[in-house]
Design a protein that fits this description.
This protein has 2 domains: 39 residues; 89 residues. It has 7 helices and 2 strands. It has a two-stranded antiparallel ribbon with strand order 1-2.
Length: 153
């Protein structure tokens, strides 16, 4: 039997043994990926386990929000870097999907707002306004870049 499997309480089913450091692994991966499912898989736990832990452990919930904020900032900085440097290529030589990046930023905005407001001890409305302005600036830069590209062709 592999080391990570153990019998359940009745000795019938085998369940994976959970790494005691799974929370740290999950949070670190979540900050990099902003993807709960991939982060849970990376940490060796199920999605339901991480969501249940978030509900039951306020400190874990706080770290989760902070990780989402960090991931949001990473994505925002990556989009801005690409726009500033004119980097239109993705890693596989296809065109970088700015529209999808903007959709992701918008989709995660509310979580990012809550996390940043909690860390800065300011109102969520103030943070939401700041984020909305940044996303709009990115959207306008993308339009300007596309207009420049259209003029070249």
């Amino acid at each position: 039997m592999p080391d990570n499997l153990r019998p359940d309480r009745r000795g019938q089913k085998k369940r994976p043994r959970i790494n005691p450091h799974w929370r740290d692994r999950f949070i670190e991966h979540l900050a990099q990926s902003s993807n709960v499912s991939r982060s849970a898989e990376f940490a060796g736990v199920s999605n339901s386990h991480v969501y249940r832990t978030r509900t039951n452990e306020p400190e874990f919930a706080r770290r989760w929000l902070a990780a989402l904020w960090e991931g949001y900032e990473h994505l925002e900085m990556e989009v801005l870097r690409r726009l500033r440097e004119g980097d239109q290529q993705a890693g596989d030589a296809s065109k970088y999907d700015f529209a999808n990046a903007i959709r992701l930023l918008n989709a995660h905005r509310d979580n990012a707002v809550r996390a940043q407001a909690e860390q800065r001890n300011v109102s969520a409305a103030e943070i939401r306004g700041s984020i909305d302005r940044k996303v709009e600036e990115i959207r306008l830069r993308i339009q300007q870049e596309r207009a420049r590209e259209a003029k070249k062709t």
